[in-house]
Amino acid sequence: VTDVELTRGSAQDIPRLEPLWVAVHHQHRAAMPELGPYVSDEVTWREHRPIYEELFRRPDTFVFLASEGDRLIGYALGHVVPVEETWIADTWATGRRIGELESISVLPEHRGQGIGSRLMDEVHAEFDRLGIEDVVIGLLPGNERALRLYERHGYVPNWLYVSRFRSEGRG
Ligand SMILES: CC(C)(COP(=O)(O)OP(=O)(O)OC[C@H]1O[C@@H](n2cnc3c(N)ncnc32)[C@H](O)[C@@H]1OP(=O)(O)O)[C@@H](O)C(=O)NCCC(=O)NCCS
Description:
This protein has helices spanning 18-31, 41-55, 115-129, 144-152; strands at 4-8, 62-68, 71-82, 97-106, 135-136. By secondary structure, it is an alpha+beta fold.
């Protein structure tokens, strides 16, 4: 655990995030198989990568990387958005800008060692530096492990989508 190093990354690191994002996708599939069919590993990255690229064209997007030697084993990516561009402004009284923890992932064999928690601490320190006091995270309701991590760091359940997809349950 002690030789796991956290550093700040940049948009240049986006290609290296592929296996870590695919691990998030695997977690989604495993946590709620009843919502299938899911897209393939190839499609999930093809669709998600441009989201990261777009976020890094905006100010105040950041990524922290967890590495063991040369090997990338985890990351957390956050960004900031004006509250009026969100679903929050019409319902809750918050600051003018909202932080979102867009993604957090630790490779399966490195979970349960506190790395996710250390990444969360870095993310909160960065939001503090940016003057952000209001933060949201999206997750699947069946992703209990992620929910426990967030609750330990002070988050409570907030907005919830329900879905009725044409293909749901045919996975
Ligand atoms: C969610 C996720 C990022 C958590 O990362 P992690 O590194 O395992 O997180 P932590 O190690 O800090 O905490 C996980 C557990 O280990 C325990 N733990 C923390 N430090 C520990 C240590 N030093 N030794 C033993 N256990 C420890 C925690 O108490 C926690 O227990 P819990 O699951 O019963 O609540 C990781 O499970 C993951 O990548 N999941 C798949 C992707 C995903 O779902 N991402 C979120 C999408 S919304």
